[in-house]
Specification:
The structure is a single chain. The protein is built from ten helices and no strands.
């Protein structure tokens, strides 16, 4: 295939909205493209690139339900349920915003912002319309996929979300181990294990992971004196002088 025909084939493949739409004969002629992009300078547009995947419709529906749940719970959680509003509600609101005086009270501009219900209300004013708009757009994309018999299974996205829980479990185990083994040993174990878990399993990379963890301990615990639990099970077996030193710096 010469360069001109190859370029035309690639350009024709870019006309499709989803990769699943590319016909087999066109996809076979397109040059190999790795999922791992080559090293290049990061552009600002790349940071805000957004594509709707197969599971976007389900997650958009869940976000919409959560947004309406917050909206329904607003009145009970903020104390507005059963609250009696003043008769002259317009004057009351103008006074709250600091535009007029009532009952010889001093006007303070923006005093309403100090009330506890204002922050949640402002968040709901953004969250609910955004959730509705996102659900509407994701439904259109989902309908388009079904119309043209494109894959709509969310198995891949669910597997990625479940896989992320693994690292959450590592962090929970780390926080539990600190009161038992101490900040030093727990950090060294976590740093070395994560280096191995991410696929860097040569002696060189394991040493780098161990050394990086040790530097973290020196910076955050020995130098910055970040607080850790006072009672550490392993340190209780050390002599009093050594125990005091370890609790202070490690």
């Amino acid at each position: 295939m010469d360069k001109v025909s190859e370029k035309n084939t690639i350009n024709s493949a870019t006309l499709y909205l989803f990769d699943e739409q590319i016909p087999a004969f066109v996809a076979s002629q397109v040059s190999f493209k790795s999922d791992c992009p080559p090293d290049r300078k990061i552009k600002l547009d790349d940071l805000f690139e957004f594509k709707r995947k197969r599971g976007d419709f389900l997650f958009s529906a869940i976000v919409l339900v959560v947004a309406f749940f917050f909206l329904i719970s607003f009145f009970t959680e903020t104390g507005w349920q059963g609250k009696k509003l003043p008769n002259d509600f317009g004057t009351y609101m103008l006074h709250q915003f600091g535009f007029v005086e009532t009952e010889e009270k001093m006007v303070r501009f923006g005093r309403i912002l100090k009330q506890s219900w204002v922050g949640p209300l402002l968040c709901l004013m953004v969250l609910v319309p955004a959730a509705i708009w996102n659900f509407k757009t994701s439904f259109q994309v989902h309908h388009y996929r079904k119309r043209f018999l494109l894959p709509t299974s969310i198995r891949y996205e669910l597997e990625k979300y479940i896989a992320a829980i693994e690292y959450v479990a590592y962090f929970v185990l780390y926080t539990v181990s600190v009161p038992i083994l101490g900040y030093l040993i727990s950090t060294l174990l976590l740093g070395s294990f994560l280096t191995w878990r991410l696929g860097y399993r040569t002696a060189r990379w394991l040493f780098i992971g161990l050394l990086s963890s040790l530097v973290i301990v020196f910076v955050f615990r020995s130098f910055l004196q970040i607080k850790t639990p006072i009672n550490i099970w392993l340190y209780d077996f050390l002599p009093s002088a050594t125990r005091g030193f370890m609790l202070t710096y490690f």
